[in-house]
Write a structure and sequence with these properties.
By secondary structure, the chain is of the alpha+beta class. It has five helices and seven strands.
Length: about 180
């Protein structure tokens, strides 16, 4: 897998089927890394899923996809808070790379794409949560300048087990409202 061409691009309505398939895989394969479950995702209408892929990149809301040839192998979303008092920040969400493609730098390229686009907006902060113990994801975020700003004990409950979550934040230097 060392020789491949990776394309990072904003997902749109034509990508709904591929997005939903990869999203269901991530929720099955890594259930403690996400706040949603497979049943949550399956309950969403096609229109709701399509709404997630509505591109509002200029405002700071979009989903990026990583493609190897025509296959979607990674996803990462950014969602700006719509309310006026929170409009200066956005949440990084849904970060996932297919297990067969991990270790190839794809998550880093997705994150670099998100950050590049975010710097072109009026966003001041990007906030994310990561399950405590997910050292690979945490290391990636730290490498791009995210800092820890708190922990929530027992934030996630899955099959009777509780998981702590760490909140991390990146201040986007040079942006102003």
């Amino acid at each position: 897998m060392c020789n491949f061409t990776l394309t990072i691009r904003t997902l749109g309505p034509d990508d709904v089927a591929a997005f939903r398939e990869l999203r269901l895989l991530c929720l099955q394969e890594s259930p403690t890394a996400f706040g949603s479950s497979v049943s949550d995702e399956l309950s969403l209408s096609q229109e709701t899923v399509m709404g997630r892929l509505q591109n509002h990149e200029a405002e700071g809301t979009f989903v990026l996809g990583a493609f190897v040839e025509e296959s979607l192998v990674g996803i990462m979303g950014l969602m700006r808070h719509p309310r006026a008092k929170f409009y200066h920040k956005a949440d990084l969400w849904g970060v996932y790379v297919h297990p067969e493609w991990r270790g190839q730098g794809i998550a880093g390229q997705l994150l670099d794409g998100v950050l590049s686009r975010a710097h072109q907006t009026t966003l001041h902060h990007i906030v994310l949560t990561v399950t405590c113990g997910n050292s690979v994801a945490r290391s990636l975020y730290l490498s791009r300048g995210f800092v820890s700003c708190g922990f929530e004990k027992d934030a996630l409950c899955w099959e009777g087990a509780y998981f702590d979550m760490e909140t991390m934040q990146l201040r986007l230097v040079g942006n102003s409202l």
